[in-house]
Amino acid sequence: MRPGARPAGSRRISVIHALAVVGLLAGAAQVARADVASDQAAAILVFPKLRVDTKNVAGQGRVDTLIRVSNTSAQAISMRCFYADATPVCSNGTGSCLAPGACTGVCVPQWQETDFVVNITARQPIAWLASQGAAGCEESPVPGMPCFPLTTNGGRIGPNGQTNNGSRIPPAPEDPFIGELKCIAVDRNDVPVERNDLKGEVQITRVEVPQASGVDVETYNAIGIPSIPGTNNGDNTLILGGNVCAGGAKAGSICAAAADCPGGSCISAAEYSSCPNILILDHFFDGATDPISGETVTTDLTLVPCSEDFLNQAPLTTPVQFLVFNEFEQRFSTSRRITCFQEFRISDIDTHTPTKSIFSAAVNGTLTGQTRMRGVADQDTGHGHTLLGVAEEFRGGRSSAAFNLHFTGSRPQSDFVYLP
């Protein structure tokens, strides 16, 4: 569908740096931009939610995630990827926080990154299971496991001698695991490149145990953030969207239009397209009964910040405003803070009693509605406050479907991804 942290010391991005990135472009013609989308190839791929639970710790069956990425170009490309492990840890070590009631202490959020590099040949699709990772097929210890087929050790090469040599994907950092994956297009020296050639998908599979009598599969597209041609300076601070004043009394300030820059001009500071200003979710309210199937419907929502600090492994926090409309166009609102990664049932966003939630069908009096989500910006220029996410719809406690959110708008403040 097409949509409408700050490091310490010398790594902190400054307005002067932002101006340096775009200074040579001030007199150039405006370059063509593409929107953030989930159906187009891009230079950054965001997979907001991955799940692994091969031992059925959470009691939802054996869960694994198949990740697919395709190089859509006729040239080889590399990508630098980061797992963001958001699996909560029980403070007294009594059990997994992903299993209801297993932790008798306090579930403590965590945020740890694991990075790796993948080399993809021309027009090549690759895939791996989050629980297993991937290596060259000749090294794969498990028959039939997704692997890299084109390696010199395996005796197979692609067009013009291209191979997957140097690619090795680790398994998810733990099992059970919940978290995010972000991949950036780079060259063989790990330098970010302006190539909108990557396209990705996720497939989350749940197998009932012990009889394996039922299999539930849900899929969603990776969110693609395109690069803007002619703007990338190749450093490890990626600037996503945003404008700054060039010259005048407010030189270096964030701006939305020329009127914000007396005596100067408002120019783009971006190397990549802006993350969306507002996320839109069309959904059944929790507890609603589908009039066709008769099944009870609930919705899970996963949100991640667009800005991320992989350099310092510092989680970023964003206050999020939720604006909820029912079928009578009555409006409800709530807010909560999102740090690093947050996955929740929508009727748990504002209360611990789902039937009293503004996301409940009983409260709204209609089956369906729309929720609009917006990260609240502040004056901290070290990171932005936009969000990305994915939703999952569960029916009757057995079947599910994942789907991408709608996007709209942009904002003058940049988001930043800081690479180590």
Describe the structure.
This protein has helices at 15-22, 361-364, and strands spanning 44-52, 62-71, 77-85, 89-90, 107-108, 112-120, 125-129, 177-186, 198-207, 215-221, 223-225, 237-240, 243-246, 265-268, 278-284, 288-289, 296-305, 308-309, 317-326, 331-339, 342-345, 368-375, 387-395, 399-404, 406-408, 415-418. The longest helix is centred in the N-terminal third of the chain and has 8 residues, at 15-22. It contains two helices and 26 strands. The strands form seven sheets. The chain has a five-stranded antiparallel sheet, with no helix packed on it. The two termini are 32 Å apart. The protein is mainly β and 420 residues long.
Radius of gyration over all CA atoms, rounded: 22 Å
Largest sheet: 5 strands, antiparallel
Q: Bin the strand percentage.
A: 35-45%
Q: Say how many strands there are.
A: 26
Pairing-aware structural class of the strands and helices?
mainly beta
Order of helices and strands: HEEEEEEEEEEEEEEEEEEEEEHEEEEE
Helix content: under 10%
